Amino acid sequence: MPAIVLLCLAYRMTTALALTLNEDERTWLAAHPELRLGVDVSWPSFEFRDEQGNDHGLTAAYVRLIEERLDVKLQPVEPSNWSAILE
């Protein structure tokens, strides 16, 4: 029973955090449905990639949540170094 209560509370917390965008933000996202995201997959447990090429970790979980809430696609890009990520 406690597990069910915790699951219900966790679900409620995630659905309660709906994003409200202004008109300019909605227009910009509509014009940019796919966004590039610089990643460094050598930082387990924040970012890492499995043998099949799937992204995992805390960052991947946030990326999925942002994609879902904003209805956008974040395209991971793995640059050669941190300077390239910032460009």
From TrEMBL:
<dbReference type="Pfam" id="PF00497">
    <property type="entry name" value="SBP_bac_3"/>
</dbReference>
<keyword id="KW-0732">Signal</keyword>
<protein>
    <submittedName>
        <fullName>Diguanylate cyclase/phosphodiesterase</fullName>
    </submittedName>
</protein>
<feature type="signal peptide">
    <location>
        <begin position="1"/>
        <end position="18"/>
    </location>
</feature>
<feature type="domain" description="Solute-binding protein family 3/N-terminal">
    <location>
        <begin position="35"/>
        <end position="86"/>
    </location>
</feature>
<dbReference type="InterPro" id="IPR001638">
    <property type="entry name" value="Solute-binding_3/MltF_N"/>
</dbReference>
